[in-house]
Amino acid sequence: MDEHISKTGVRTPSVRDRRYAIRYPFAADVVLLDLETGARVEGVTSDLSLGGCFVCSSKALPARTRARITLTRREQVVEALAVVRIVKARVGMGIEFIDVTESCQTVLMRWLEQVRRNR
User: Torsion-angle region of residue 32: left (phi > 0), alpha (psi -120 to 50) or beta?
Assistant: First the structure.
C-alpha cells in the first residue's frame, strides 16, 4: 500500500486506502489464516461491506498479509481470500476481500441486505 506524505508531513490516503463500498455495522466471528506462515488470528467484525470488513482482535497480522478469512454468523459461513490493508495496534485490522466464491458472495449479499433493511 503506497503512503503519500504531504509537504506538511501529514499522511494522505492513497487510492488503496479509500473504501469503494459502504460498510455497515455487523458482528460475525472471524478466523484469519496467514497463507504464508500459517499464523491464525481470531476476532469479531465490527463492520462489513462487499469489499471487506474490520476485524476487532488484540492480535493482528501485518499489513499486506494475504490470508484466508472465514466469517461465521448464525451457522452461515463466508470464506474468501483477503489482504490486510491497515493495522490498528491492539484494536484490529482492516481487511479487503480479494476473491469470494459465488456461493459465499450470495451469503455476503444476503447479510448486507438484512442490515440495510433493519436500519
Answer: beta
Contacts of 4 (CB under 8 A, 6+ apart): 11, 12, 13, 14
Residue 61 CA, distance from chain mean position: 12
Say whether pTM exceeds 0.85.
no
| 12 belongs to a structural domain | no
Domain membership flag for residue 84: yes
Count of structural domains, the chain: 1
Band the pLDDT of 19: cuts 50, 70, 90.
Answer: low
Segment 50-80, tens digit of pLDDT: 999 999 999 999 999 999 999 999 999 999 9
